[in-house]
TrEMBL record:
Organism name: Ramalina farinacea
Name by which UniProt lists this protein: Glycosyltransferase family 32 protein
Record's compositionally biased regions (Polar residues): 108-117
InterPro entries for the chain: GlycoTrfase_DXD_sugar-bd_CS (IPR007577), Nucleotide-diphossugar_trans (IPR029044)
GO terms, biological process: carbohydrate derivative metabolic process
Annotated stretches, region: Disordered: 92-119
Any Pfam family matching the protein: Gly_transf_sug
Family designation: Belongs to the glycosyltransferase 32 family.
Amino acid sequence: MIEYLQTGAINLPSFFQPNSKAEVVPTADFLYALNGSSVAADDYLGSRPDSHIVADFEKIMSNCGDFHEDSGVSDIVECLNYLATRKDDYFTSETTSPTPSRLEGNPRLSSKVSQSPEDACNGPIRTYHTYWAGHATWRVELFIKAYLYSQNLACSRLWVWLDADVDPSALKTMLYHDPLFQRFRPLLDEGYITLKEWKLPFRIPLPRLSKALDPHTLYRPSNPTVTGEVPVADGVMQDASGMLWLLPQPLYKHVATPTQVSDLVRFVVLHLHGGVYLDMDVLLLRDLRPLLLLPQSPPTDPDAQPAWAEQWVEHAHDPGDYNTAVLSLPANSSLTSYLLRGGLRMGMNFHPRVLGRMMWKDGRNGELGMFHNAVFDPLVTNLRRRGTGKCTVPCHKNFESAFMGNVEEPGFEWSNYEGPPPEHAARLHAGEEEVATTNRTMENFFRGAFAYHIHNQWQKFPEKNSWMDVITRTQDGFFSGERTNAYGEVWRGPALEAYDRSTWGWNSGELRT
């Protein structure tokens, strides 16, 4: 039997109802009470949005779009509040399923089951891309399990791009010889995950209309080559059929670091395949599908998808300050061609702020939407903006806090709680030597955000009772069949091993399950 270290949810009614008149001064006893023991509400997100549900980007950006210099932490709290409580406003034609029956013997498990790649998808399938170089670590495991835990698997495909330019045997090594990745082999066989070999293409196709839609690029046709191809611009070739090709290889030597490579990879794979790219240090919390569809009234192109990224760090100095840690782009489009051509023209520089400034100067930044930090990176504003107004739940002061059992400033962690204390608060006392911080549960982790950006932290491991420990144990419970995911679904895919916490530096007493 698994001994879970979380105790579920405190009820945070006032956080999600900013106009509440309740006012509670967080005393020491009260702060301990917030970390008391209760039952986890695993299915806190309710029913999963139907596969045809579309997010209204204008409403999200209007309610989560304050990029002014003087904005503080309070605006991200308001955005999270909107995302958590107003799905009826920003989801189009959302339908709700009947209240599910409960599985016998476990009142927390519903009869709903998670979908699989073999199930039919009522709409277009979206591909999720990520890039990795080297052997698999627990962070690769965290990314994959978060994807399986949160996404609509009938309508999603996960492609993990392994750098074969750095290691030609990367795919074979990961598939057959990587000790940690072997637990995911059954998922490959059933289509949950696909390993892809990343090698920079010798040439990349451009849409025929890209020349007409890219007036800022100088096309000066030269004499045909012996094969009938015509160089029409730096790095651009036109073949005998009139097809345009981008030739990035001569400049690839300028891409020196893994960060630069990953900056390039996302734009190439999205240009070729479309979908959404996510850095490996992005932890998915909610189903992204509503953000990856466009309204079709009437339906015209079911494969059409929106183009968006998130804003850079705490505020955008100009409309081109993008962060592409999470990036959605349509395949083979004028926009992706323009971005690839621009990065090549600037010496293979695909840094998002560089490309963003190029778009701004060329008047094309309106083609790539910009989401507020709260949507995918809710912690960053706590650290970089002025600490005005309310703080998020949890209220952390650094990126390490999610890995810590005892945060540096424990009095702030639940400082935004405004409702009455839980019923069991009176029996907890500040003088106790040990108080389990077990109200750290998924439902209280930046509620409303679609993802959480860990921001590297590659060498860190979760401490006992930390948020990351709670998140990984929640996943373990889901994949073992003892708990549901956040949408009340039971895992029905291949069995998955739990995290190997012995590699995290824990002692034997902390590893009890």
